[in-house]
Amino acid sequence: MHGNIFSKGLISLVAALFLIPLQGIAQDLSGREIMEKLEDNRRATSNSALSRMQLSTCKFGVREGKISCAERPRVKSLESVGKGYGVDLKDTRSVAILLDPPAERGIGMLSFVYDEGARDNETWLYLSALGRVKRIASGSSDDETEPGSMFGSEFTTEDQDTGKLDEYEINLLEETTEAGREVWKIETIPNEERARQSRYSRTVLYVDKERFVELRIEMYDQYGKEIKRMLGARVELMNGIWVARSTTIMNLVTNRLSNMAFLEMHTGIDVPDEFLTQRTLTDAAFRETELEKLRAQID
Amino acid sequence: MMKIKKFAGLGVVTLLTALNPAKAQDDVLVLDDDVQFDGDFAFDDDLFSSAFDGDSSANTSSWLDDFTIKISQQVSGQINNHGVEIAPGFSLPRQAELETNRLGVNIRYQNAFAPGWLLQASAQVRIYLNDDYQYRAEGGSIDIETRGNELFLQRSFDQHSIKLGRQTVVWGETSGNSVLDVINTTEFRDFNIIDIEDARLNQWMLVWDYFGEDSNFSSFVNLYPEFNPPAVRGSPFFFEPEFNITDYDRDSSLLFEAGTQWRKSFEGSDISFMVAYLFENQLRFEDPINQMGDAVAENNDFFLLGFSANRAIGKLLLNFDLAYSHDVLADSFNFPGTASLANPVNLKKDQIGTSMGFEYAISNDQSVSLGIQAQMLLDEDEGLLPGQSLLNDGVFGSWLMRYSNTLMNSDLDISWTLQGDLAANSLLALVGADYTINDNWAVGGQIIGIASNEESPLLFFAEDVRLSATVTYSF
Predict the structure, then answer these.
(1) Is the separation of the CB atoms in A203 and A217 below 8 Å?
(2) Domains plus CATH for chain A?
(3) Which of A86, B5, B56, B307 has a CA that sits 20 to 30 A from residue B23's CA?
């Protein structure tokens, strides 16, 4: 018992010794450096990872002064596998398979997200009714529209993107608090090239200073109007990575919101390259066998 | 055919139950679309806390999970009283009438029962109720039809996958009207099916896929090629033939089809090359010898060489298909009594065809697509007798345009489809709306209008307006 307390005390002391200078360093980080750390953290959640998520979407309204669903949310559950590629593993390949509702079971989406700004991300979808894999053109959008949504939710491929930081002006606006946590308030403004491919002309992020997780993101259109807001909650340490287990994105134009709940997230999974190919979308026998192997790594 | 009267009221029950959707949450002030969120607003994440309550349930599975069942009730009919002038001075009356009133059950089963193994099956049951055209064709009694669709066993190992059983093979990139989508037969039984995805029929095949590091091969062998089924008696597409049309008589001859496709993906693009030995899906019917007995169905084998590609440019996806067919029958669409060739001959020709188009995601909710299919017989006049002409001369084909828009939390899907032939002889316009009430219930409706001149086979349906409604329960 004493040993245990001693151990904890020692660990705390060591941690304190390390954290103090770390926090000192953190204070000196530039907006760009914070964004890089934030994105590293984001990528870590999908690198060699197997996740199970629930996606809920509804039209929202106000009840007793609080945002609330005005209708029963549409709920989809899905399983996702991802892995990092390229220089410093900054490109991500991932596959997401719908488990529920029954009518959509088996619909799969394969995504290649590239860090480099000049490379359009790629997406393929398998619809059993169509009988083949279909490439989805959703690499970019103009000012009036937005890129492809994730299984009909308010989360779009652009909202999930990482990388392409070179194409943004990044400004550290201030240090403030959000949801009771100390945060950096950072704005990102796309350059001309990126602006042509983004719906957002400006994004403001509130990044937890200790955990490098976004607690709030505001997205603005070309007229300076906030059109979307994302809120991160239930920030927990999962497999050594700080994760907002519940992320809600509100479309303030259509008054729809979607919540993504990370029910499970397992990192350090040995994901074979073959799994992140179109074969996983079409070959159900292969997919289920490989998924069982991935799940077995968790056990 | 079974005759069961008690099912007659089931459709009504289904309809009434569906009209009582899950109640929306009470006391919520629904905001206008132009509401401003200038400051902070209260959001409590507990709204979705229930998602984390049932974590353990994810591991509980049941054998029933392998089944997906869809029950649907559909009614449709022609609603425009009018006449069609099919010859000078001769008008065919077209009365408003109910055409379909049917209850359908679709069952799909997928079970990866062992590592590398998968069994997949699907089947449908149709119950034709009062005033359905098949009910009338059966002499006024309820008719039940069952059909097996998919049934295949799959074994995947290393870089290989082998599927044996009833299945479909889809080639080509252009959605809806690809010149390469000719492997499986189709059945357009009535105007409720106009999408090829719904009309494609499964066939008994062995399919071998090889997944290489940079490219894939997919090959198939079909040892029992089937042909497009003739129109069902009573359906809008059924016309009393001069001679009775029967199933194809296979005798003792062994028919087979085989083909292979090589596919490679590049950044922003996918390409495929394919080669196949096939039978034309549509049989040619000749008048019987001595003008007595049944019509004689003739098949025709041919070789197909194909190429397809797509290219994604931002939100635009370009599609392209090219097909070269060697030895297709120039008069294969002849029906007894309607032959344009006075004496059908085995006039085989080569044909080149292309389908191309684009899909554009206007926004998160809206998309538009266009596909144009054009074909041409090579040396079309060669072998024709004086005065003979082909059904299809010059460049012939069709075009297909679709627009879809999802609204109301993606619950409402509205689509517009326009379809016509390249010679501008006919136009089919469809407006459809599908509303998802919840994860189980959905309702849909569509209206189809047809315009045609005397050059098109759709002349018989000119000025027809059809309305349909469907209620679906899935679980």
Answers:
(1) yes
(2) 50-298 (2.50.20.10)
(3) B56
